[in-house]
Model the fold of this input.
Amino acid sequence: MKPPAPAARVVGHPVIAGLIVLAGAPFAIVCALRGGDGLFLAVIMGVILERVMRANASVMEYRAWKSAWDAMADQPPRPKRGMAIARVVVAVLAGLFALTHIRDPQVLGGLVFIGLGLGLWVVVSIGRRLGIGFGRRARPSTSDLVTIAVRGPVMPIPTLQQAFAMLPEHCQCLRQAASY
Done:
């Protein structure tokens, strides 16, 4: 499988695609609700979001294929740490935004609620990274690799003369006619 184009790999990265969708979807909705020229912007943003989601799907498909390919060669899987880092970055940015708006009680109340959710999100991701179940049943680790050893053929393989002798009569006639 060919890797996606470099632009698709950048735009299709889960963090970047998520940020584009989180910013673009509300923008498209607001533009569509305003009507007039905003409807044109909403359609353009819808096309952009569709392209971003298509790039994200191709990147995720390539990553799944690549990890399966690497697993066939007994290479260890790459650690999935990108989303955990993104969660910490989002939580830190929300905290910094809350510190700058500490005087406005409405903004601060909403940010406290969002901050608690992000904090729980970070704790759950770190807990899952450490192997703590958090709402999921712990499953025993199983390997997808299976080793099969075949000692010999399952059924006897005839020699070439035996195989020609077992051919039906019309095939025998064709074979004899071709040998002249």
Remarks:
- The mean pLDDT is 77.
- Residues 1-73 form one domain.
